[in-house]
Amino acid sequence: MSASPGSVAEIQALIRSAAAAGTPLIPVGRRSWPGAGGWAPKEGRALDTTPLKRIRHYEPADLTITADAGIGLDELDAGLAENGQWLPIDSPGAGSGTLGAAAATGGFGPLRQRYGATRDNVLGLEVVTGDGRLLRLGGRVVKNVAGYDLVRVFVGSRGSLGVITRVSMRLFPRPEEDRTLIYRVRAERALAMATALRRGHLPVAAVVLGSGGMEGGGGRAATLAARILGGGRGAREITGRVVAALGADPDEALRDEASRRFHDRHRQWEDDARLMVRLRALPDRLDEVVAIAQPVAAAVAGEIAADARNGVVRVKTPAAPAGRDEVVAALAGARGRVEALGGSLALDDAAGELGRRVGWVGRGGGAGGIVRRIKSLFDPHGVLAPRCPE
User: Fold this and answer.
1) 22 and 138 both lie in a single domain
2) Is the model more confident about 340 or about 353?
3) Is residue 208 assigned to a domain?
4) pLDDT digits (tens, 9 = 90+) for 38-58
């Protein structure tokens, strides 16, 4: 059962009514975003924000926009393209997700190193808290704000503190050219090439590694894709520098729409996952993190993909492994090893039993005292069902 309020006032009334009745609410948009990671509850009434989808304020000259949370990122992109601008959110689920969900999940994809994460580009929010208050946080322009930055508290809170109803974002000029150089090489060579691009400080927008061969090594073919964004002359110059740094011509060179389609498919890579494990450490530890991920992939018969510039390695399987001892042991061992590198391992999606046995997040995660205090400030009645993972 879901509710689809058509205004902020209706959302406030619905939240107050749910609090009085003790009915948990789950804020949702198009429901395309990965929703687990210990946050997604099993029970509760969905509060659908998609009826709220107006653009409220758009200043192309200032590269800023304010829009309702329910507007689709695809709809927003189509409008921004007319002015040669875009909002480069490329985290999983972004293709068919809403602006509010992008802010609520706070995710990021391979373009983070070039454009920043979602939380870096949110300028302001309008939020209805769990007790029905309407908060307007931040602003519509790029500026420094004194005091507590509550925008960053709500970005990434996944609806556990309030329902995001409006978002102000920083925009960017749309690149004139979008190029992707694809190399199909042995897995060890793909990692070495990713390292060469990072150490060469080349202005590459993204470097991703495909799962083919990554999950077990063994010299099988892997795919490395280097994305180049910019003006025509600049893109051509960077392309030449990348080819020179890697010492080989690409097996395939994609341009514009073909390049965008490739990265759209990469963004959708985890859509069919029933288990999604995310390992992260500093980018210069990528080889080690991939090695740590390999036993996990073997234990769950999964695949591996890596975001080389951000140091993120993901393991997925479309199956739903329960909390078998060997799977739990593989995940626990991997978590210990990656945390020893100063990194982290989190379950972005998993069966409930496995999540409970392994823990959704590792060291430093969980519903600690400060998290509970923040929750009590903005959702004192616990009406918003999402919670921090335990």
Assistant:
1) yes
2) 340
3) yes
4) 555 556 789 999 999 999 999
